[in-house]
Design a protein that fits this description.
The chain starts with a helix and ends with a helix. The protein has a six-stranded antiparallel sheet, with no helix packed on it. The protein has a four-stranded antiparallel sheet with strand order 5-4-10-9, with no helix packed on it. It is elongated and about 85 Å long. By secondary structure, the protein is of the alpha+beta class. It has helices at residues 3-27, 205-216, 225-238, 242-254, 267-279, 283-294, 301-313, 317-330, 337-348, 352-364, 374-387; strands at residues 40-48, 51-59, 104-108, 112-114, 117-119, 122-129, 136-141, 156-162, 165-181, 184-201. Helix 2 (205-216) packs antiparallel against helix 3 (225-238), helix 3 runs parallel beside helix 5 (267-279) and helix 7 packs antiparallel against helix 8 (317-330). InterPro entries: DUF2911 (IPR021314), TPR-like_helical_dom_sf (IPR011990).
Length: 388
C-alpha cells in the first residue's frame, strides 16, 4: 500500500476515535443543561409550626410547544389513568410521577398525618394514581429510581384516596399549600383544570414547640430571662407541660444562670408565674403572686388595666372590678387607663350610671397616640346614654 494512503487511514482512525470520545463525553456530561422537555425544576416549602414540608418537582406546561394546546388532553391522555406498562424499565404497573422528568419528592421534617394517616419524617417519592371514575390516590413511596419506570408497590409507605377537584386553568403544573392553620395545611397539585389536594396535620404541634423551646433554653437563648418567661407563658396559655413551665417561670424571676445573668421580679414575670399556677388549678397561689405583682412600685396603670381586661375576657367580673378599683387607688394621677378599666368593668356588670361617668373621663383624657380610638370610645358612651 502507498505510504500516503496508509497515513490517510491512520489519521482517519485517530479522528474517528476522537469524535467517539467527544460523543461519549457528551452523553455522560454532568454539566448544567436545560431540563428534558423544558420542564423546569421547581420546589415549594411550607411550615406548620416547627414542621417543614418541602415538595421538589419538575413542572410541565399545557402548551408545549407554545402553539400546541393540550387543554382537554391532559388527564387520561398525557397523564394516564391507573397503573400502566410504559414499555420502559422493569415495572409493568407504573403510576404517574406527579410531575415531569425525575420522581417528585416530598420531605417532612417531623412525623405527620396525611389525610388522617400516620407518616414518619423523611423524604418520599410522590406518585399519583389518576382514575377516571373512582377516587384518585396519592402514593408516598421509598422508591429510589428515576421517574416511575422502576416503581414497585412493595416500596409504598402510604396510600391515601382523595377527590380531584375542578379548578381554574393553570398553565404550569404547580404545587402549593393553602388552608394554612396552626396545626395543619392542605397541600395540592394544580394543573390544567384540576386540583388534587391532600391534608397534612401536625396534631402534636404544641408539644413540638415545647420540645424546641426546651432545646433553645439550653443554648444562648437561656441567658435571657425573658426567653424563660416566654416559654412558660406559652405553656400556660396552652395548658401544656405545666410542671416544667413553673420551673421556667421561676427562672425568669430568680435565675436563669447563676453568675452569668439574673432574673427579674417584675409585673410581667410574676404575671406569667400566676398564669401557670392558674392553669394548674392553683388559684389561691396564683392570686397571691398577682397581689405581689400589682403592689410592685414599678407596676404601671396600663399593666393593671391589661390584667383586669384579661379577667373580664375570662368572665371573672368580680376579680376584674377589684383590679380596676385598685388601679384607680394605686394610680390616682392617671386619668385614662384607670377610668377605661372602670368604664369597661361597670359596663360588663350592667352598672350604666358609673360606666357613663367613667366613659366621660376617658373621652376627655385620650392620649395623643391613641386618638384614633376616640370615636370608638365616644360611640360606647353614646350607646350607654341612649340605653338609659
Amino acid at each position: 500500500m502507498d505510504r500516503s494512503v496508509t497515513v490517510k487511514f491512520a489519521w482517519a482512525a485517530i479522528l474517528l476515535l476522537m469524535f467517539s470520545i467527544v460523543a461519549a463525553a457528551q452523553e455522560t456530561s454532568e454539566v448544567a443543561t436545560p431540563p428534558n422537555g423544558d420542564n423546569q425544576h421547581a420546589s415549594v416549602s411550607q411550615w406548620i409550626g416547627p414542621v417543614k414540608i418541602s415538595i421538589d418537582y419538575h413542572s410541565p406546561r399545557v402548551h408545549n410547544p407554545a402553539e400546541n394546546d393540550r387543554t382537554g388532553h391532559i388527564w387520561g391522555e398525557l397523564v394516564h389513568y391507573g397503573f400502566v406498562d410504559e414499555g420502559f424499565g422493569p415495572t409493568q404497573a407504573a403510576p404517574w410521577r406527579a410531575g415531569a422528568n425525575e420522581s417528585t419528592a416530598i420531605t417532612f421534617s417531623h412525623d405527620v398525618k396525611v389525610e388522617g394517616k400516620d407518616l414518619k419524617a423523611g423524604t418520599y417519592a410522590l406518585f399519583l394514581d389518576v382514575e377516571k371514575t373512582s377516587p384518585w390516590q396519592w402514593i408516598f413511596s421509598n422508591h429510589q429510581g428515576w421517574g416511575s419506570f422502576q416503581y414497585d408497590r412493595k416500596d409504598d409507605v402510604l396510600r391515601v384516596p382523595v377527590a380531584a377537584q375542578d379548578a381554574p386553568f393553570t398553565e404550569f403544573l404547580t404545587y402549593g399549600f393553602d388552608d394554612r392553620r396552626p396545626d395543619s395545611a392542605v397541600a395540592y397539585l394544580q394543573w390544567e383544570k384540576k386540583r388534587v389536594p391532600f391534608k397534612v396535620e401536625v396534631p402534636n404541634v404544641k408539644a413540638l414547640y415545647v420540645a424546641k423551646m426546651r432545646q433553645d433554653l439550653q443554648s444562648w437563648a437561656g441567658f435571657n430571662y425573658q426567653d424563660w418567661q416566654t416559654a412558660a407563658q406559652f405553656c400556660a396559655d396552652n395548658k401544656i407541660n405545666l410542671e416544667e413551665a413553673l420551673t421556667w417561670a421561676d427562672k425568669a424571676i430568680n435565675g436563669p444562670f447563676r453568675g452569668a445573668t439574673i432574673g427579674h421580679e417584675e409585673f410581667a414575670t410574676l404575671s406569667t408565674k400566676a398564669a401557670v399556677l392558674s392553669a394548674m388549678g392553683r388559684e389561691a397561689d396564683a392570686d397571691s403572686v398577682m397581689d405581689k405583682a400589682l403592689h410592685l412600685r414599678a407596676t404601671d396603670a396600663y399593666s393593671v388595666y391589661a390584667y383586669g381586661m384579661g379577667l373580664l375576657r375570662n368572665d371573672k367580673k368580680d376579680k376584674a372590678m377589684k383590679a380596676f378599683t385598685f388601679n384607680q387607688q394605686q394610680h390616682p394621677e392617671d386619668k385614662f387607663w384607670t377610668a377605661l378599666g372602670l368604664a369597661r368593668g361597670y359596663s360588663a356588670n350592667g352598672d350604666k350610671k358609673n360606666a357613663i361617668a367613667n366613659w366621660e373621663i376617658v373621652v376627655k383624657n385620650v392620649p395623643a397616640n391613641l386618638s384614633n380610638r376616640t370615636a370608638g370610645y365616644e360611640a360606647a358612651l353614646k350607646k350607654l346614654k341612649e340605653a338609659i
